[in-house]
Amino acid sequence: RSFTATVPSSTATTVLSATSTVASSTPESNTANNVGTDTLVVLFADPALDLGVIPSATPGSTVTTTLSLVNLGSATTSVTVTVLINGVTSTQVFTLAPNGVTQTVVLTVPVTSTGATVSASISASSVPDSNLGNNADTSVGGALFADLTSTVDLPTNAPAGSVVTVTATFANSATATTASAATGTVVLSDGTTQTFALGDLAP
């Protein structure tokens, strides 16, 4: 005889056992075999995720990071993954094979004036999750800025009508960011203006 049974979904239950017995009004020659037992091991999922490092970059640029998904459990499961990139939410369903098979997703991340923040979380596992402690992660990247400086030098004095040299120094005192397409300008009090195309100023 056969019937259906539901495998327990509580992670507190790791096995499902069954015991069968048979009896009759007719005398038996051997009652030692009237009991049968069997045990089923309950399989659970353990989906987990990990966010990679977000590279620091200049505001307005775009960088990439990775989202790694893995199922450390023993049963295949489908999960919903929610990703927030600088507060913008997206969701996607993934099917995760058991026993540590990893899926990697590349995320494109815009860098703002305050950097970049990516958060990810797992929910709605189709097979009960035995460990909820590895279902979320957050990664933060910084914003890099240039720091342009300029100085200008004139002689202390000079005769009226003479020609003097004006020296302007332009630099980028940032520690890591090149200032692209920099332009320097010197304006004299007599209205003379001199502009210099400086190109890229390294830090």
How does this model look, in words?
With 203 residues, this protein is mainly beta. It has no helices and 13 strands. The strands form five sheets. Strands 6-5-8-9 form a four-stranded antiparallel β-sheet, with no helix packed on it. The protein has a three-stranded antiparallel β-sheet with strand order 3-4-7, with no helix packed on it. It is rod-shaped, with a radius of gyration of 35 Å.
Determine Rg (CA atoms, Å): 35 Å
Percent strand equals: over 45%
Mean pLDDT: 96
Order of helices and strands: EEEEEEEEEEEEE
Structural class category: mainly beta
- Beginning-to-end CA distance, first to last residue: 80 Å
Counted beta strands: 13
Shape: rod-shaped
Helical amount: under 10%
Main beta sheet: 4 strands, antiparallel
Spatially, the strands of the biggest sheet line up as 6-5-8-9
Instruction: Work out the helix count.
Output: 0
Uncertain ranges: none
Top keywords for this entry?
3-stranded antiparallel sheet, single chain, about 200 residues, rod-shaped, 4-stranded antiparallel sheet, mainly beta
Gist of the model:
The chain is built from no helices and 13 strands. The protein has 203 residues and is an all-beta fold. It starts with 14 loop residues before the first strand and ends with a strand.
Compile the SSE list and pairings:
Blueprint: E1 15-21, E2 35-41, E3 47-51, E4 62-71, E5 77-85, E6 88-96, E7 102-110, E8 116-123, E9 136-141, E10 148-153, E11 167-172, E12 179-187, E13 193-201
Antiparallel strand pairs: 1-2, 3-4, 4-7, 5-6, 5-8, 8-9, 10-11, 12-13
